[in-house]
Specification:
The protein has 888 residues and is an alpha+beta fold. It has five domains: 244 residues, Bira Bifunctional Protein, Domain 2 (BirA Bifunctional Protein, domain 2, 2-Layer Sandwich); 183 residues; 104 residues, Elongation Factor Tu (Ef-tu), domain 3; 152 residues, Threonyl-tRNA Synthetase, Chain A, domain 2; 122 residues, Diaminopimelate Epimerase, Chain A, domain 1 (Roll). The strands form six sheets. Strands 1, 2, 3, 4, 5, 6, 7, 8 and 9 form a nine-stranded mixed β-sheet that branches. Strand 29 and strand 30 form a beta hairpin. The radius of gyration is 31 Å and the shape is globular. The two termini are 48 Å apart.
Length: 888
């Protein structure tokens, strides 16, 4: 604890963490804003306890029963409230102390009182507390224990307020751990409201600053809506204190936006806009608050590996940046400015979070690209709004399309409409469409159970003692069956020691067999379930052996001696692909830049897949360079070593870590050669030297999602087989063309020319191949936007369809055929691109509006005509921007 009352945010953070370290708590570094793989139930980390879920659920052993942390958090539901109120934020820091089966109510309350009064220097006479007042539906009475412990530390009974279930009972959902809460409030005086105690009204007189969750029950909710509570085997504590709110109280500020983390950002907004904060212009104040909050959020999201896109976390990031740009423009900030706010965020918070300083230029790359792209989109959205306003009405559906397609905020639409004297009556329709969109997003974001509970329960049901993994050292293990479980139609086997690798870090599980020591194969291994540092093997009866979940039990019993054998061929092929993945990652960063980060991978025996952050398609030259660089490392026969060391040492050596992955204090680092080319934190299996990989061949490159590219590749015998297959195919083509292999390309070109001058008469002589070659990449989708001469409107759809067919994948085509007094337009969109929101009818309407016409059609094909062929190029640009707005 500091010797004097802390005031700055950095001092507050250190005071809290230092206090609990002195009480025996283990200080944890903040986890990523991207939840670890064990918690797919949320898009972003929203609370301090989220990274600790496996500990509370018993799926993993905590490093200590007492923990404390300052966790980076992000809450998407609050985006629309930022700026409207003086306290809502998207990105914030949550201080917390946690007890996992160690101390409980008495100690938690005593710690909170001591830190609040002595550490933070609050006047004891101004602290009020609330406790759970009981609930008939839960069958619980007043939390008298908490009342007694507050009285014990010196809080008078009149300042202990009983509140109901909605205020003072915590539960993560209808089932699972839950318990009463007790909260601390600071009385700021009657100037802030007429309330005489917490919970009496919505005023700011009594400001909550700390919530203590007292987990002591396991809740089961029944079909009739009633709940059953049973005591947990071990009581736990989970507390949360918002750092920014505490800074407001200790710095004597009226709002969060006046505190030390926000004041420099507000000052920058004043400098760039020429306006003064809190000068009576509420719209300007709101804009500055949004700029301050959203630029903090964008900085931390990108530093944790999120990139702009139209899906999931990327959509949240894109929305933040676009809202910030709009608000900046509204208060008169010209040019590109998000980079200036990035620098201000790094200056205020880089000391506490060095990752944002280390990745500043990488963050700037994404910020600049998004700001430039949205600047063009904003112009297009404004033009469309002008057209709508000229008709005298803007519907809710129109406003939603402007918002959803062009990122045009509804507030801006309604303001501009009001300035032109046009009444806005579409709010209900807009709200309905927004609600439908949020429900779709919410459904898509909840992708799993809580904290890997299923995997953890399987592992612990099979046997209490964790399996010792020995698969790094050898592929055969004489061991003992520790348990067998039939569950969910599958048979799970627990071994005392196991050579089988459990799927994780992108690498698939090992396959293999279980053989009885006294002879005879009993089961095939078809999967391995990971549960923290533990595992359970999924088995099926071996050929000729009855049993399994579908019949009798597999003939294996607890205590039986067996030989566990990994499939050596599949393991070695997988190891080759895993080491090649590390080489590929390093080569991509070397060629494209440090903004490249892994965004997903799959390492299998037959191939590898690697997703990485990058805004554009790789050129053939890029792919050839990367492939050559990897093969160069393979030919050098570089040794591959796995080293175990403290995580700080690994980071100091420059080891790459995966965003959203959870690491302990001691990590495994895989180093290739002397480490100058590749060092990564990795728990997977690898070859002993790069020469074992044999050869590396990239088989495809494409878009995984907006700003995320995907490379697939093969190695070793699989790659040799492919090269032989292609050689054979080339020989067959040369045979058919009756020319040597070296002349095949020239021969095909001549045949195409002959086809064009002969059978190709059905359509005008348009070089579809040349048009397809002009495709540009928008959000990972090849898009052709071009004018064609001498083509009738009747021929245009067939030509567009043929061009689309030459794109080699899901794409979109926009063609315009001008004549003397009119212009024909057609848009063709692949169904996969339609699924991403690009609809041919929408695009053709935008283009037709520019040339004074109209039209429509299906989502995959639409036509239109216009009366002003002089504006053909403008119409094509409008179509391009409309597609870009959707695909990013």
């Amino acid at each position: 604890m500091t010797s004097q009352r802390p005031t700055t945010s950095d001092e507050i953070r250190e005071t809290f963490l230092g206090f609990f370290e002195a009480q025996g708590s283990r200080r944890l570094a903040s986890a990523s804003l991207v939840p670890a793989q064990h918690d797919p139930s949320v898009l972003l980390t929203t609370a301090g306890m989220h990274p600790l879920k496996p500990y509370f659920l018993g799926a993993e052993q905590p490093p200590s029963r007492r923990l404390t942390s300052c966790q980076k958090c992000f809450r998407t539901p609050d985006i629309d409230n930022v700026g409207v109120t003086a306290r809502h934020l998207t990105f914030f820091e949550m201080l917390g102390n946690f007890s996992i089966g160690d101390y409980f109510k008495r100690e938690a309350i005593a710690f909170a009182w001591k830190l609040s009064t002595e550490g933070f220097g609050f006047d004891p006479e101004k602290i009020w507390v609330t406790v759970f007042g009981g609930d008939e539906g839960l069958g619980l009475g007043v939390d008298q224990e908490s009342i007694d412990f507050w009285l014990e530390v010196g809080v008078p009974r009149e300042r202990i307020v009983e509140l109901g279930r909605e205020d003072n009972f915590w539960q993560a959902g209808p089932n699972g751990p839950c318990g009463p809460c007790t909260e601390l409030y600071l009385d700021r005086g009657p100037a802030y409201g007429a309330a005489t105690k917490p919970g009496e009204d919505e005023s700011d007189r009594f400001m909550e600053f700390w919530n203590l969750v007292l987990m002591q029950y396991d809740q089961t909710t029944h079909e009739d809506g009633t709940s059953t509570l049973v005591p947990l085997p071990a009581n736990s504590i989970d507390t949360g204190m918002g750092l920014n709110r505490m800074a407001m109280l200790l710095q004597g500020k009226e709002t969060i936006f006046e505190t030390d983390q926000f004041a420099p950002l507000i000052a920058l907004a004043e400098e760039l806009s020429g306006k003064t904060y809190e000068s009576g212009d509420e719209a300007a104040d709101r804009a500055m608050r949004i700029l301050a909050d959203h630029t903090r959020g964008m900085t931390f999201l990108i530093s944790d590996g999120v990139v702009p896109s139209n899906e999931d976390r990327g959509y949240v990031l894109r929305r933040l940046m676009r809202r910030a740009v709009v608000q900046g423009r509204r208060i008169g900030i010209e040019g590109e400015f998000l980079g200036r706010f990035l620098d201000a965020v790094v200056a205020t918070m880089g000391a506490a979070y060095p990752e944002i300083a280390e990745r500043r230029e990488e963050i700037r790359t994404w910020v600049t690209a998004e700001e430039q792209g949205f600047g063009r989109t904003l112009v297009q959205g404004s033009a469309l709004l002008d057209e709508l306003l000229a008709k005298g009405e803007v519907s809710g559906a129109d406003a939603f399309r402007l918002h959803d397609t062009f990122g045009f905020p509804v507030e801006l639409t309604t303001e501009i409409a009001g300035e032109r004297g046009i009444a806005w009556t579409g709010q209900d329709e807009f709200d309905r469409l927004m609600t439908e969109q949020r429900e779709r997003s919410k459904a898509g974001s909840r992708r799993g159970d809580h904290g890997g509970a299923a995997a953890g329960s399987i592992a612990h049901l099979v046997a209490e003692e964790p399996t010792a993994f020995t698969g790094y050292e050898h592929l055969e293990e004489h061991t003992t069956v520790a348990g067998v479980l039939e569950q969910g139609g599958k048979t799970y086997l627990k071994l005392a020691e196991s050579p089988f690798y459990a799927e994780g870090g992108g690498q698939v599980s090992d396959a293999g067999s279980i053989v009885l020591e006294d002879g005879g194969e009993a089961a095939r291994v078809v999967g391995v379930v990971r549960a923290g540092d533990d595992q359970a093997i999924v088995v099926e009866p071996a050929s000729g052996v009855t049993g399994g979940a579908s019949g009798q039990d597999v003939d294996l019993r607890s205590g039986q001696r067996v030989v566990a054998r990994v499939d050596r061929r599949a393991r070695h092929a997988t190891q080759c692909n895993h080491t090649a993945t590390h080489l590929l990652h390093a080569a991509l960063r070397e060629r494209l830049g440090d903004h490249v980060h892994q965004a997903g991978s799959a390492v299998r025996p037959d191939k590898l897949r690697f997703d990485f952050s990058h805004p554009s398609k790789l050129t053939p030259e890029d792919l050839r360079w990367v492939e050559d660089r990897v093969n160069e490392q393979i030919l050098q026969n570089q040794p591959v070593r796995a080293l175990t060391m403290p995580i700080d040492q690994a980071k100091a050596l420059g080891a790459m870590a995966l965003f959203g992955e959870k690491y302990g204090d001691v990590v495994r680092m895989v180093e290739i050669g002397d480490g100058s080319f590749s060092r990564e934190l990795c728990g997977g299996t690898h070859v002993r030297s790069t020469a074992e990989i044999g050869v590396f061949k990239i088989t495809s490159e494409g878009s995984s999602s907006a700003n995320v590219r995907r490379v697939e590749a093969i190695t070793g015998p699989v790659a040799i087989d492919l090269l032989r297959e292609r050689d054979g195919l080339l020989d067959e083509i040369a045979d058919a063309a009756k020319v040597p292999a070296a002349q095949v390309v020239e021969r095909i070109a001549k045949l195409r020319e002959q086809a064009k001058s002969g059978a190709g008469k059905a359509l005008p002589a348009v070089d579809e191949g040349a048009l397809a070659a002009e495709a540009v990449e928008l959000g990972g989708v090849p898009v052709v936007v071009a004018r064609v001469e001498g083509v009738t409107p009747k021929d245009l759809p067939a030509i567009a369809d043929r061009v689309k067919g030459q794109l080699g994948g899901a794409g979109a085509v926009v063609l315009a055929a001008p004549s003397d007094d009119k212009v024909a337009l057609v848009v063709a969109v692949d169904p996969d691109v339609v699924a991403r929101g690009v609809k041919a009818g929408d695009v053709v309407k935008v283009a037709a509006g520019v040339v004074g016409g109209g039209g429509g059609g299906k989502p995959t094909m639409a036509q239109a005509g216009g009366k002003d062929p002089a504006k053909t190029d403008d119409a094509l640009r409008a179509a391009h921007d409309a597609i870009a707005a959707v695909l990013g």
